[in-house]
Specification:
2 copies of one chain form a homodimer. By secondary structure, chain A is α/β, with parallel strands linked by helices. Helices cover about 45% and strands about 15% of the residues of chain A. The first copy, chain A, has 19 helices and 19 strands.
Chain lengths: ~525, ~525
């Protein structure tokens, strides 16, 4: 029996069980975060990792890192025993590592306003969050256009309704219809009001970080915020080997307030780091170590996440490329470095260069999602929605990636080795040449047997054609529209909501609109 | 600097290096097969694997396997010490395993008529082959239609021209324009004539297997074929727990002639095996062990490959589903079982249920390709072209998957830990705030720095739009047409070609056309 013919047979006999099937849109169980029950994958040997760690210390010692336009930062480093030469800081071997290992937590809880949605970041846990930063959106209906606050709210709602996303994220898209200096207020408010999942704060200026913390205090209470983490924010290095004043300022605000920061070199290898995997890893680790150690100088114990965003570039055009093997290697190595250091790790995402949610987008996204899944990423920004190198948040792409996130959750939950998982009774009951559809074991495990995709069409060609021969994007288009139609806001204490609105309005009234 | 803004910066500075860039369609180096320099991934514990192995022996001992309509097979099993009850064969614990471990090679060479293209199957090697078995083809130009011998030849040519595919495969598509009882002659001839990569033989009847061996003898010489492996063929179990006479007959022909067989349960879990990962693994391993051991009874030392093809089904419709987490787990576990047994392993492929080469096709394919890559698959059928659950060979899909295969090759080659790979000179030369595009290390490593996709569009939105806003399938369409235009047949000894044609014509004249 050929592989083709065998398939027809299975399909046919499966019809027997159809009547018993109850419709269910997805099999992704709703959990606040993923607990990993499978090992991580690490392609680099112990010796290889030691080479990277050693080279990282050499970079920190010999080349050093620039802390630009921030006297306080330089003073902190001088006090800590680093060699400060102008804005260049050089670090005795092991200084950054020891500062981090002395006080940074290996994992932390980020509290959500709904306690059932609080997440654990680090260790064997994985938290998935939507894409971050796109100024454009794309949908089948409107094509590509600048994003607005309405789009932002839509993506907060979609993330809230998606069981496989555990976190509301941050700048889901840039609401470019709002003034640059005020839009953070509407973004943070939207996260709080339209979702009850954990969220990220503003980092585009220290005072905007402070506003984010202030709004969190309104929700959680001042004392609680000082002693607990309720915001995780993204601090990008200005690679190679530079921290700028904006990022350092925001980092300081969050660390001072015991809020978490993801210390993330953002690297297009070949342009912002060497063209090799190990060279890129050594550099980004040096940058991350210096940033995480700086957070510990600001407030020992403030949660930090070692983040990386590393893609390669096309050596022809300089354009960033995604889903290729070299960035996957960097991701795996960086994850191993994080584990050896003992801090949570952020990387990955449904990254792609494609302009539209087509096959290129999906291959590239799946390649990075799979890599991140097996690397043991603890916090995954950009899980859903990313298009066009991060310039575009895609409505349909969001739905597709969220489906992949659901699969990730099932895989990471591991393999059931219980008696039920072994299913020997089923094999004994059925025997050679029969089918398993009606057997007791199948009936008992029917509901949760296999992951059920909400987006894939697995029907016959004839049925698919009779239903309009839709592609994946067209099916995803119908899904997000239905979700937004069915959205219901989570409850919020009216007094809290009122205080938030009041704060937002007050802050807006205190300054003129600005486009920077 | 945000993740969005940092990207623009890299892109901009990359322009500096553009003039130096020489066009190159792909960075997949042409090697006859992949040598794996990274570890495999295995999600199941030692104890878990022992449970599966133990349950497998219980299935073989208690339930047994049916060897249908084949007295010779039953007699061989009786002689070997198995309990033969009608067509049901029950095996003393450990019998199958010990038969295999006594004589089956851990790896073998499949010789190609061009010695530079001979492949190693097993161990740390990976050999990638196109999809197998589809009766339909799909292209952007013609949509979906029945395949012909012309399509078959096209795919032989495309596989020949694709550096990331190491093997010509077998039934690339069913040439349904030819009589069923004669088409194998044209298929095997096409593999030999239009390619010089290794190929697969016919398995749809013992005499067709014999024809395949005969044609190989014409090419390689009778003595060489008896002592070396020049054909690898696919033998599917009729799961659950049945071997049918067709497959056993073909298996016997190949084994007798020292040719390799891939012993592959073809399973849609839930229909043809239990709905759990471990249940499916135990059953398919029992089936495979009985088939591989049978080959060793026929001719000790004949190469066998432990193959699995396991997907899940939609519990609503019974339709096969691909790229989901449960089949990935099965694949990883089966790969570990193969390593513990000590035989080569076949699984994976660019599997998908999608009717068209869209995002669903790509997500699903990438998920299985990544899994197979990290599981340590030695022989991967269905690497390129598969659509619609294997019913369709897609021209555009073939090009897309082949691009992924090239990436796989780069990843499996591992991480360069040499001084050049460490790139410390580059970091020292460039320093904080500068870019790496012009530095000596980048210039020296320019050509092979990053994988270069032949299909992906990484250009700016504006450029992509000005070039027609093409999706991936449209770009792939242009690629396969150009390849077929540029195809040049590999040289062949005219006497060999003449002898092959003569044999094909003689065999065709000996029997009337038949549709079975």
């Amino acid at each position: 029996m050929s592989e083709r013919r065998a398939r027809g047979r299975g399909r046919e006999s499966a019809r027997d069980a159809r009547r018993a099937a109850r419709a269910k849109s997805t099999s992704a169980r709703s959990v606040p975060y993923i607990t990993r029950n499978v090992p991580v994958y690490n392609p680099l040997s112990e010796e290889g990792l030691e080479i990277v760690e050693n080279n990282t210390e050499t970079i920190l010692e010999e080349t050093g890192i620039e802390f630009r336009d921030d006297r306080e930062a330089l003073a902190l480093w001088k006090d800590a025993g680093a060699d400060v030469d102008g804005q260049r800081v050089r670090f005795p071997r092991g200084l950054c590592r020891s500062l981090i290992q002395k006080s940074a937590p290996a994992e932390y809880v980020q509290h959500a306003r709904n306690p059932e949605r609080s997440v654990r970041i680090g260790g064997k846990y994985t938290v998935l969050a939507p894409a971050y930063g796109p100024p454009f959106i794309r949908s089948l209906d409107e094509g590509r256009r600048y994003a607005t606050i309405q789009d932002f709210r839509n993506f907060v709602k979609l993330a809230y309704m998606t069981p496989s996303l555990h976190h509301s994220g941050g700048t889901l898209c840039e609401p470019v219809d709002l003034p640059v200096n005020k839009r953070h207020l509407d973004m943070v408010y939207s996260h709080i009001r339209f979702s009850d999942k954990p969220f990220m704060g503003s980092v585009t200026a220290p005072e905007r970080a402070q506003d984010s913390v202030h709004m969190a205090r309104i929700v959680f209470g001042e004392a609680f915020v000082d002693q607990n983490t309720v915001i995780t924010s993204l601090i990008n290095a200005n690679s190679p080997m530079v921290w700028d004043a904006t990022m350092l300022g925001a980092l300081r605000v969050y660390a001072q307030n015991n809020q978490a920061t993801v210390i993330s070199p953002f690297i297009l290898a070949g342009a912002m780091s060497p063209v090799t995997v190990l060279g890129t890893c050594s550099q980004l680790f040096a940058e991350a170590l210096s940033g995480m150690a700086f957070a510990q100088l600001v407030r020992p114990g403030a949660p930090v996440v070692f983040g990386t965003f590393a893609s390669s570039i096309s050596m022809q055009s300089g354009a960033p490329t995604f889903g290729t093997p070299e960035p996957a290697m960097v991701l795996y190595v960086a994850a191993a470095l994080a584990r050896r250091l003992g801090v949570p790790f952020r990387s990955g995402g449904g990254l792609c260069a494609s302009k539209i949610p087509d096959a290129q987008a999906a291959y590239e996204s799946a390649n990075t999602l799979q890599t991140a899944m097996l690397a043991g990423v603890n916090f995954m920004l950009h899980t859903a929605g990313w298009l066009e190198g991060g310039l575009v948040m895609g409505y349909e792409k969001f739905i597709m990636d969220a489906d992949q996130a659901g699969m990730m959750q099932v895989f990471l939950s591991g393999i059931d080795t219980s008696e039920n998982g072994q299913a020997m009774d089923a094999i004994r009951e059925v025997g050679p040449g029969q089918h398993f559809l009606g057997c007791a074991h199948t009936q008992a495990n029917f509901e949760n047997a296999f992951y059920r995709s909400s987006v894939s069409d697995n029907n016959s060609f004839e049925q698919w054609e009779s239903e309009g021969a839709k592609d994946t994007a067209q099916r995803a288009n119908a899904i997000w529209k239905t979700m937004l139609d069915e959205y219901e806001a989570p409850a919020i204490d009216p007094a809290v909501d009122e205080a938030l609105v009041e704060f937002v309005n007050k802050r807006k009234s205190e300054m003129p609109d600005a486009s920077y």
